[in-house]
Amino acid sequence: MSEAAPTGLSVPVYLDYSATTPVDDRVAQKMMDCLTLQGNFGNPASRSHVFGWNAEGAVEQARKDVADLLGADPREVVWTSGATESNNLAIKGAAHFNAKKGKHIITMKTEHKAVLDTCRQLEREGFEVTYLDPLENGLLDFDAFNAAIREDTTIVSIMHVNNEIGVIQDIEAIGKITREKKILLHVDAAQSPGKVEIDVDRMQVDLMSLCAHKVYGPKGVGALYVRRKPRVRLEAQIHGGGHERGMRSGTLPTHQLVGMGEAFRIAREEMAAENERLVKLRNRLWDGVKDMEEIYVNGDMEQRIPGNMNISFNFVEGESLIMSLKDVAVSSGSACTSASLEPSYVLRALGRSDELAHSSIRFTMGRFTTEEEVDFTINLIRDAVGKLRDLSPLWDMHKDGIDLASVEWAHH
Amino acid sequence: MAYSDKVLDHYENPRNVGVLDKDDPNVGTGMVGAPACGDVMRLQIKVDDDGVVVDAKFKTYGCGSAIASSSLVTEMVKGKTIAEVEQIKNMDIVEELALPPVKIHCSVLAEDAIAAAIADIKAKQAEQGAAAEAG
Asked: Measured between CB atoms, which of B11, B40, B63 is closest to A394?
């Protein structure tokens, strides 16, 4: 069933940029300059010689590059190992520090596991967490949000861009509410740098988690933005030499940080042009498949990052579709591949039926995606869905006018 | 996850895809699974007057291993008597397709589909027998 790839196209085509991105050549070059004896290899914490001073200089430039993308002061950027650590430090650190004020946290069911699991841990420690359902389009339900706020609410944690469906939450509107109520606002922004504008002051964000590897930087490095005015205080989660003003000890990995800084610098400079290109590619993909029967876009189409398309192909199971699309690297909203056999919890939270949640595919495009790759993908999708529907008893039943919801299934 | 060559072969070239007349008294239809669980199998077998399976068809909504399991089953049942078909166990499918542990449920579903199809035939035959006696 696999189409012959057009000459010049290398397969598999990578359409999983929300999982991770390749490191940009410009970033890799800068990183390589910070490793060897001839390079800038010193320990940024060494105060007694030029190796340390040079490394510190490079790290501080990187800190400024990250801060510039956020509209923040470099002193508000704390280096971490990635967004998961940043989420842990932000939520646990702020929850613990503010435990005397209150022990209630508000978040959403569509958050990344790094937020949800951190909240679960806090629940085991005696905190209370409200997990809000999103609206059908994936966006925050402000009525439910306002209703959930309590006297003892200390932290609200809402992600900026959803990793599965690409929807963009209105952080500015949330920040207005949390600031007025003197509640800390933490934003998991792992997916947003270079895709949607960030301004921590306009958005009134107090804490923001970031990582490099979704923005053409290296894996294993991230940052947490921690507001200075009004000052946000955290309990450290990793103790040691007192690096990062005591908030996160551990020797700074110069090459990783330089990579993140360069990646964020490029993201800031090229965001507008890149988004324009990605919107066209995204629309090209959708235009190429939208006439197919029984397909549904998951998540709001307007408040959405340019490179994300999450589509449910009804009556086709996601894992088999991915198998058919073997020349395209995509991911399934269904977590079947991780052996849990549970459909995507994000799509379930949107109110999608199990069938539709099982039938979803996330296509995410990025800096190196081409029109040819998108066209190739469109052809593959059409063939694969056609073939799998010919194999699908559910498709037969649908064609016979049977409402699947009315059937009594033998659940196993 | 890497699929075995046999799973890939059945997935890419599924055998005996299709539909038999479910109202034919010699056709047994078994539909098992649920969309909510991510797989639904419909297996149909047709027997001759001696109770030997002469044809089998399937359609499956599910992962590649579920599709391969049901495709394999249609091959396994052909030429066997009902009594022989009843002896097919899910582990036969697991071994033949080299299914990993997380995919064993696909083989269980296929075994269930066989049992459901046979039950359907037996029910139809019992009904016919009753009708004949009454007539």
From this structure: B40
